[in-house]
Write a structure and sequence with these properties.
heterodimer, A: 7-stranded mixed beta sheet, B: mainly beta, 6-stranded mixed beta sheet, 11 strands, 0% helix
């Protein structure tokens, strides 16, 4: 039982490049989330998926897209990376949106030059 | 905009000191309050979920209380140890279906031996 896994662990991009961050959970959770962590800002919600087939914007969705591929997987895509997107990205999951404990992945450290 | 405020922003104590932090949240439309512990270079881990006014939860030397009428929760650490050094996040869930957790920015605790 791996919990929440994220790939890659670390990535360097040039401005304008695109990439997809992958997240998978094996806890049969309905809801999944993407956050970014920046110094002094805590965790900010980018997008979330309350259940398979649905996605909703969080606090900072601009510059990102998401796909809930199936119940297990929730990916985050940067179409044209910008230096402002340098951050640590965390994926999380819970049984249902908002009301249950969230379980976090190990994070992806992204540097955009 | 729903806001979750945590204070202090950071705290430095000596080993053996007891300490406490505050989380303030909107008192109306409340459903649940979560506390997470977040060690450097790791992912946030859940400590407590509280839903009822007057709730008290305890896990070893860490405990938390909840006042939903006035919109605050306290986290207490008794006899702080260096391994307690971490950022402590609280997150509020409004009583609105489909709404994700709203995180505060955290209180960073540093315990010196």
């Amino acid at each position: 039982n791996a919990g929440v896994t994220q790939t890659p662990k670390f990535q360097v991009l040039k401005t304008g490049q695109s990439m997809t961050l992958q997240c998978a959970q094996d806890m049969n959770h309905n809801s999944m989330y993407w956050y970014r962590q920046d110094p002094g800002m805590g965790l900010r919600l980018i997008y979330y998926s309350a259940s398979e087939g649905t996605t909703d914007k969080g606090e900072v969705p601009n510059g990102y897209n998401v796909s809930r591929l199936n119940k297990r997987e929730f990916s985050l895509r940067l179409e044209s990376a910008a230096p402002s997107q340098t951050s640590v990205y965390f994926c999380a999951s819970s049984e249902e949106v908002g009301r249950q404990t969230q379980y976090f992945g190990p994070g992806t450290r992204l540097l955009v030059l | 905009i729903l806001n979750v405020e945590q204070s202090p922003q950071s705290l430095h104590v000596q080993e053996g000191d007891s300490t406490n932090f505050t989380c303030s949240f909107p008192s109306s439309n409340f459903y649940a309050l979560h506390w997470y512990r977040w060690e450097t270079a790791k992912s946030p881990e859940a400590l407590f979920v509280m839903t009822l006014n007057g709730d008290e939860k305890k896990k070893g030397r860490i405990s938390a209380t909840l006042n939903t009428k006035e919109g605050y929760s306290y986290l207490y650490i008794k006899g702080s140890q260096p391994e307690d050094s971490a950022t402590y996040l609280c997150a509020y869930t409004p009583n609105q279906a489909g709404t994700a957790l709203i995180f505060g920015k955290g209180t960073t605790l540093s315990v010196s031996s």
